[in-house]
Amino acid sequence: MKDVFARLASDFLSTIVFLVIYLVTDNIILATSLAVAGAIAQVIYARVKGKALGYMTYASLALVIVLGTATILTQDPRFVLAKPSIAHFAIGAIMLKPGWMLRYMPARVTDVIPEYVTAAGYAWAVLMFVLGAGTIAVAWTGDLKLWAFYVSVVAVGAKIVAFAIQYVIFRIIITSRLRAAARA
User: Fold this and answer.
1) Nearest Cα to 76, choosing from 20, 136, 144, 15?
2) How high is the pLDDT of residue 133?
3) What domain of life does the UniProt record list for this protein's source (predicted)?
4) Residue 5 pLDDT level (bands cut at 50, 70, 90)
5) In the chain, what are the helix, strand and coil shares in percent, each to the nearest 5?
6) Residue 50 contacts residue 42 (beta carbons within 8 Å)
7) CA-to-CA distance for 72 and 122, rounded, in angstroms?
8) 122-141, pLDDT tens digit by residue?
9) From the centroid of its chain, how far is CA 145?
10) What is the distance between the alpha carbons of residues 6 and 106, in angstroms, rounded to a whole number?
11) Which residues contact 53 (CB under 8 A, 6 or more apart)?
């Protein structure tokens, strides 16, 4: 569980840096510049440490650089504000692969209810697409404070609620199946 949150924090580090710097300074250029620099530094650090970097890491870096540069050159924050939506769409597309979630589940879950894990994977994909569309809608307004609220509270909150619902449902189904198997 701790590893999953560490991966998520790593994946969204540039967005977190952007958000914090912007909220503290109210300076879009500074926040964007530091987010781009942070993304580059993160990849360099991982390479120096010999960590293998996946496709999503490089795709995220490219998005940060391209959209960050567009934001800096045009001084229009909507470019960088769109980045989380692109990430949500890309992650949603990856989540459409059947069984993607199995590797993140404990053995008890994958042994007892693998078909529910696959269904939950599709539900997560839908959630990512909805959050991506919401991010674009909010970014289009150009209201940075609304966007900051959306990506830091609404999007994160939706994922926490979805995780909690999934956890409870999985527990109920696993308990039910194990009791039924014990009776049989």
Assistant:
1) 144
2) 96
3) Bacteria
4) low
5) 85, 0, 15
6) no
7) 36
8) 999 999 999 999 999 999 88
9) 20
10) 17
11) 43, 46, 47
3-state secondary structure of 76: coil
Buried b (16+ CB within 10 A) or exposed e, 62-75: ebbeebbeebbeee
Please state, in angstroms and rounded to a whole number, the distance separating the CA atoms of residues 157 and 163.
Answer: 10
How far out from the chain centre does Cα 94 lie?
Answer: 12
The first and second tokens of residue 9, run together, are: 């924090």
Tokens 């209201």 sit on residue: 143
Q: Which whole-number Å values give the CA distances from 96 to 93, 100, 119, in the listed order?
A: 5, 8, 10
Burial track 96-125 (b if 16+ CB lie within 10 A, e otherwise): eeeebbeeebeeebeebbeebbeebbeebb
**pLDDT number for residue 56:** 67
Domain regions of the chain by residue span:
2-183
The answer to whether the beta carbons of residues 98 and 118 sit under 8 Å apart is yes
Token pair listed for 50: 């010999």
